[in-house]
Request: fold
Amino acid sequence: MTARNGASPPASGAPGRRLPRPGRITPVRISSFTAVSALGRGRDAHVDALRERRSGLRPNDFTGTPLGTWIGRVDGLEEQVLPGRLAEWECRNNRLAWLTLQADSFIEAALQARDRHGPGRIAVIVGTSTSSIGASEEAYRRLTPEGLYPEDLRRPIVHTPHSLGDFVQHALGLAGICVTVATACSSSAKVFAQAERLLRTGLADAAIVGGVDTLCGSVLFGFNSLELVSAEPCRPFDVERKGISLGEAGGFALLEREALAGPWLLGYGESSDAHHMSSPHPEGLGARLALEDALARAGLEPARVDYVNLHGTASARNDEVEARLLADLFPARTRASSTKGWTGHTLGAAGIVEAVLTLLALREGLAPGTLNSRRLDEACGPQIRLENEPAAIRYALSQSFGFGGSNCVLAFGGELPA
Amino acid sequence: MNPPVRSAFVDGISFWAPRLPGWELARQVLRGETTAPAEPARRPAPALLPPTERRRAPDTVAVSLEVAARACEAAGLDPATTASVFASTHGDLAISDYMCDTLVSTPTLTSPIRFHNSVHNAAAGYWTIATACYAPYTALSAHTSTFGEGLFESLVQAVTDGWPLLYVAYDIEAKGPMATMAPSAGLLGAGLVISPRASAHSRLRLDWRVVDGASHPPTVASPGTLALVQGNAMAPCLPLFEALATGRGEVSLALGPGLALGVEIVALECRG
Reply:
């Protein structure tokens, strides 16, 4: 089905056709953050891989049925064991969630926050695209002769999208608001927006945000059916790009309005494309609205943005539209890149993984380039860089766009804008 | 400690289930003014979709577009400029069954359309496409607390953003082996337009606060109402719609294991 409204889309900012431009928000501290991806476990592993320009992609060794593509697979997930008290949530996706909670002692920071604020005052707002559908896929492979799930997989919580949020809440012993956001590839970016709104109301003191998505048959063969996967490691913005490389990852961030240290969430912007389920708006209208709203909430002009982590999937359409948007809105001094050549496209986890990479770029003074790509598409302006560059990065954006035309742009700062 | 009570306004209400097809009828049945039809209605065919696609649309899309459109209509709200929150416990159970089944036998023959319709935000995606809406939506799930968490997020957005928004909650019938672990029967869609301020379209006031879950167990709908939507995963929405039908009442909706959303529906004074 390719529903498309016959009406022609309105021009950007046409009166009455969009919500009013938002005002500035009070920035929120990010007191702890971490990620696990094909690059390794925790912040240092990600910084090292960025600096060494070492990709985490490998030839597909995940699917039983051969599929000639490259994937960003997390090592050691098969051996990971959940503590006995969490056995009910056992599945690949929650194993990765557990591994990610251990990275950079994130779990310690979360538990300290629980002690400070109380378990009911900390929200869990996490994103995923497919959650633990891998467990349901496995159940279908191992159905009993009666057509029932095998006994070890008769655990309803791992066969529903909220598997992830419920697991994180129980793993951390929390009792507050708990939601799993599933808007495809914008999921774990939108969790920052939802958490900021919640903290603003004073109905929670802190929020665990982030997301986890793991490789599974659904996404590998699903993206294959759309002819979007590349037979070679993905080459974002390359003139000869041939599609995406899928990956898996997890990441978390602790947002606290009252924290004393840590970088800032300055703003967010969300929008819809109103165009197509699996193809971006041709003029990038939705993406532009999200970008403009993120800047408005942050109180930033485009010229003050030092680095933009792009969605940059290496699909033909996304990269062309996104490159034109960047060239239109930003001066040449703003650096921009896609880091998917390192991690692959981690779908529902892309928002948090790229938020973490953006926060690391701020902290390390390193503007990552674009890995695997050789010659940039002519749609690219001077903003999009192939090489890593040392750079003082004060303000940075991270862009995530998903199926169903769901867009989210996040604005981060190492300091507060004047 | 008494948590602060906040107020929002209900500007539009919609509902669709096979034996309660449409809010006007559902309202009368829930008020005890009439009985539900014995025969289930055929699934809605949303006028927003092109005629060729009305029958092909997944159940999730058909039922959610129906209630989304009716709620906006009732509220006199332009969908093109309205932000929305979509909530579904299990998402598209029929497509999940198809995907898992196909992956066992013929993974390389996976249907691209069914795959892109398998995302949890498919219904929200089709809604924004059909209404040329550039405003944000979200799509969420919280297992048995899905309805409460979705309503809570809608109320938070109304407070923080200051404009009316659309809340759509739905679940569909489970298919295949999946039905044993993610049970859900029939179709159920429910829609609300929630506004931070009273308007000419406001019908009811909704006073809400977050309370302790242990001392506020979820309100249970009357047996008669439950029987009409037997076994749908979105049934936890029913107590609120009973209160909306009568124009008054207090309801407690689960927000996970620890909290509850306490809601009081208050009738507004009759307007000229």
Chain B has a mean pLDDT of 95. DSSP finds nine helices and nine strands in chain B.
